[in-house]
Design a protein that fits this description.
By secondary structure, the protein is α+β, with helices and mostly antiparallel strands. The chain has 2 domains: 29-124, Alpha-Beta Plaits, CATH 3.30.70; 128-155. Helices cover 28% and strands 19% of the residues. It has 4 helices and 5 strands. The chain has helices at 2-12, 49-53, 87-91, 131-153; strands spanning 37-39, 59-65, 71-78, 97-99, 114-121. The protein has a 3-stranded antiparallel β-sheet with strand order 2-3-5, with no helix packed on it. Strands 1-4 form a two-stranded antiparallel ribbon. It is rod-shaped. The termini are far apart. The model has no long low-confidence stretch (mean pLDDT 91). The structure holds iron/sulfur cluster (2 copies). The site of one iron/sulfur cluster (SF4) has 14 residues, from helix 3.
Length: 155
């Protein structure tokens, strides 16, 4: 008991053997290190390829329909289940996903580990004519064609 007590008392007056974290700037990650994902919604085409290739299914896409017909698309990447395989970045033809060298992925709540971004997908332009107008135009064209054929027959 006495040696342990002696050690404990001695250690009380010693400097900690561990380093405070973070102590200054963290060292740079090794070249090619795959850290926290960066998602740039301005480059995203909403093709969904990243969702298909993510084996742990750690990303999520929310689609909200807006009143004007556009869609509000939000991508969320959950770093707590990401394996940093970079498949999503490799398959993203528009380079909207990149792997950063940020390995300081620490936090106290789930939100600290989520990477999110939102884009607006514009609705396709509305057709100039209604289906009824198109049908009417077709009928008129058909009648004109018929009349022309009859006139040609009658000489
Ligand atoms: S991030 Fe890339 S792969 Fe994913 S939906 Fe957008 S464009 Fe497609
Ligand atoms: S790095 Fe891999 S595991 Fe992480 S989101 Fe991309 S595909 Fe999924």
């Amino acid at each position: 008991m006495l040696p342990y007590l002696k050690k404990a008392v001695t250690n009380l007056f010693k400097k900690p053997s561990t380093e405070a974290f973070p102590a200054g700037d963290p060292p740079k990650a090794a070249e090619g290190y795959r850290g926290r994902i960066h998602y740039d919604p301005t480059k995203c085409m909403n093709c969904g390829m990243c969702l298909r290739v993510c084996a742990p299914q750690c990303m999520h896409r929310d689609i909200e329909k807006l009143e004007n017909g556009d869609q509000k698309v939000t991508f969320t990447f959950d770093m707590t289940s990401c394996t940093f395989c970079a498949m999503c970045a490799d398959f993203c033809s528009s380079h909207a996903i990149t792997m950063t060298d940020d390995y300081m992925i620490v936090g106290t709540k789930l939100e600290d580990f989520l990477v999110t971004g939102t884009m607006i997908k514009k609705a396709p332009p509305k057709p100039k004519f209604t289906p009824e107008q198109i049908a009417e135009m077709k009928a008129k064209a058909e009648a004109a064609k018929k009349a022309k054929a009859e006139a040609a027959q009658n000489g």
